[in-house]
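Dig into my protein:

:::
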Amino acid sequence: MLKKLTRFYYPKTIEEACLHLGNKEHKTALIAGGTSEVLRSDNSIEALVDLSKVKELCYIRQDSTYIHIGAGTPVQDIYKSKDLKGPSGELLKTAAGKIGSTLLRNSITAAGNLAGLFPWSDLPPVYMALDAEVVCRKGKPKRTVPVQRLIDNRADKFLAEAEIISEIMVPVYGKGTGVHFAKFAKTSNDYAMISLAIRLTQKGGVIESARVAVNAITAVPARCHEVENALLGKKGSAELFAEAAKKATAGLTIRRDYRASSDYRKEVLGVMVRRGLQEAFDKAKK
């Protein structure tokens, strides 16, 4: 519980939000969708800065190079967007549509799902598979960093004082690229036990680029580097994908809890990766 909470700020601009966040008179934190507030363990927080009224953080735009998604955009907007096209748009929309219930999707935000970085967060592996970048703002000054860098360092430690995530930039991929997203859970609204995002780019049947990222099966999102390396420069085939899938858990620390053992998760992930690679490759050839 936030036992010391006495102030709530509703800024209307990014600059105003950063100003409140940098106020040294009180210990201040951000709130976006608010779906993870019950898990907040820092009881010394005295003020919350609510980003829900910062309209400049809510948008989806696509140009020839990037898909630009405002940090405060609800994932339901991503799921229902008619502006998202191509493999990147397909992967984003598929993953967004599998996040919890409609009520949750209208609260969870594009950056909140990344900043919170819980094992059950479904968008981080998608951002990783698409080699996304993150725009961070401290008022007007901004910097753009690879999403992998933010994930590796955790947002709460990576972001500077009074700095917020303002945008997710997702590269646009064209012909020759195929994608796949899968979520393994007990029900459609349940937390994932495994989430998987794949992007393959091929030319003439030969795989030129591969990204395989997972979450939930690990404590934080991770790339399956051994799988990726096994695919590069090879001609796609069922045999290749089956062999690569055997390396899906190499280098990963697999979680276990009351819902599933680590051995069970390993077995399921191998099957998911094999099927996902085949589907992504088939799409890439179309």
